[in-house]
Amino acid sequence: MTSADTAAHQPTHRDGNVLAGLLSEVFDVDLTGALRRCPHCGLLGALAQLHVYGRLPGLVARCPACSAIALRIARHPGALWLEFNGTGAVRIPLDGR
Prior knowledge:
This protein is mainly beta. 12% of the residues lie in helices and 35% in strands.
């Protein structure tokens, strides 16, 4: 298998569960299970269903239905940048709190 064959068989994205570690540094609840409604196509689904592209320090998460950018996240020394402008509404279960 050539390197071109290997690259062709690698996934182009990962699911939104890859965001869990970064988001847990900022939020006390696991946001990957939170429901979101895409403001572009209306898809209702968990953040874990987002298609995540890139490598740290910067990741881009896109809607699995319409590919609209849902969020961007980047790690910098001593800080985590989050851009949620394409996420739409997010419902975060609080387990009876």
